[in-house]
From TrEMBL:
<dbReference type="InterPro" id="IPR050707">
    <property type="entry name" value="HTH_MetabolicPath_Reg"/>
</dbReference>
<dbReference type="InterPro" id="IPR005471">
    <property type="entry name" value="Tscrpt_reg_IclR_N"/>
</dbReference>
<dbReference type="InterPro" id="IPR054844">
    <property type="entry name" value="TransRegBhcR"/>
</dbReference>
<feature type="domain" description="IclR-ED">
    <location>
        <begin position="84"/>
        <end position="267"/>
    </location>
</feature>
<protein>
    <submittedName>
        <fullName>IclR family transcriptional regulator</fullName>
    </submittedName>
</protein>
<dbReference type="InterPro" id="IPR036388">
    <property type="entry name" value="WH-like_DNA-bd_sf"/>
</dbReference>
<dbReference type="Pfam" id="PF09339">
    <property type="entry name" value="HTH_IclR"/>
</dbReference>
<dbReference type="GO" id="GO:0003700">
    <property type="term" value="F:DNA-binding transcription factor activity"/>
</dbReference>
<dbReference type="InterPro" id="IPR014757">
    <property type="entry name" value="Tscrpt_reg_IclR_C"/>
</dbReference>
<keyword id="KW-0238">DNA-binding</keyword>
<dbReference type="Pfam" id="PF01614">
    <property type="entry name" value="IclR_C"/>
</dbReference>
<keyword id="KW-0804">Transcription</keyword>
<dbReference type="GO" id="GO:0003677">
    <property type="term" value="F:DNA binding"/>
</dbReference>
<dbReference type="GO" id="GO:0045892">
    <property type="term" value="P:negative regulation of DNA-templated transcription"/>
</dbReference>
<keyword id="KW-0805">Transcription regulation</keyword>
<dbReference type="InterPro" id="IPR029016">
    <property type="entry name" value="GAF-like_dom_sf"/>
</dbReference>
<feature type="domain" description="HTH iclR-type">
    <location>
        <begin position="22"/>
        <end position="83"/>
    </location>
</feature>
Length: 272
């Protein structure tokens, strides 16, 4: 007897071969992602970056603009993501109440430390930043919603990896050495595993100029009701303010914020 397909799914749902994809839609999504990762692009820049003709790209942009997914700045003829993209993004955030419940603890964390507080989750092997509470200091970290960062070179990433299964951590290095971004980046899997063990023991992770020179990040994990690390909260700031002597106290403050968010979403923190 043939298996009945799940509601809302065609029989070929898991088939990602070319005949089950819509090429025009795929092209539109690639263009939208390019715009989202930039501060705006001209038609020529988009066409060149994607290897498409300007006429083809223009048709895609006009279609996306009809749905407010992109918009054109007529002065500079620069295309940007539009309000429709923002609305779609907020729908993603509504899938979980962690963003809403984290807001007050993050604001308190920013006031206590004087540094920017961030919230992120793991997605496709990277950290996806969901929201932040910015400090008013002139020099500060900035991770707008939607920013991504490699997990092994991120405070939140390492805070999550420390409580992930060992095989998930090992998978990061299957392609060889981990990518390096600064002289301080951990690129060997055994060194990363040692760092994650230290993270579990002290309760917080440290990005010590591993992603960007001159910036430190201290992070702690947020757990769901099953004791699974599902998100991380952090504070980031320049090394002249977040000095080595300040890290233990900031780590305690970040851990307290993570515990408050865990409690607010009905989660249960796991031990080291």
């Amino acid at each position: 007897m043939a298996q009945t397909p799940k509601r809302g799914r065609p029989r070929a749902f898991h088939d990602k071969t070319e005949q089950n994809t819509v090429r025009a839609l795929d092209r539109a999504m690639v263009l939208l992602q390019s715009l989202a990762q930039s501060d705006g692009m001209t038609l020529s820049e988009l066409a060149q970056s994607e290897g498409e003709s300007p006429a083809t790209v223009y048709r895609v942009l006009i279609t996306l603009a009809q749905h407010q997914m992109v918009e054109l700045d007529p002065v500079g003829q620069i295309w940007h993501v539009g309000a429709g993209t923002f609305r779609a993004g907020t729908a993603f955030l509504r899938r979980t109440n962690v963003v809403e419940r984290a807001r007050a603890p993050m604001q308190a964390l920013m006031r206590a430390t004087g540094e920017t507080a961030n919230l992120g989750i793991a997605q496709d092997g990277e950290v996806l930043f969901l929201t932040q509470v910015e400090t008013q200091s002139a020099i500060r970290a900035f991770f707008p919603p939607g920013t991504r960062s490699p997990m092994h070179a991120s405070g939140i990433g390492k805070a999550l990896l420390a409580w992930f299964p060992a095989e998930r951590v090992a998978a990061l290095a299957r392609g060889g050495a981990l990518a390096g971004f600064t002289p301080a980046t951990i690129t060997a899997i055994d060194a990363l595993q040692a760092d994650l063990a230290l993270t579990r023991a002290r309760g917080f992770a440290l990005d010590d100029e591993e992603r960007a020179p001159g910036m430190r990040c201290v992070a702690a994990p947020i757990f769901n009701e099953h004791g699974e690390a599902i998100a991380g909260v952090s504070v980031s700031g320049p090394v002249f303010r977040v000095g080595p002597e300040a890290v233990p106290e900031i780590g305690a403050q970040v851990s307290q914020a993570a515990a408050a968010i865990t409690e607010a979403i009905g989660g249960q923190r796991r031990g080291a």
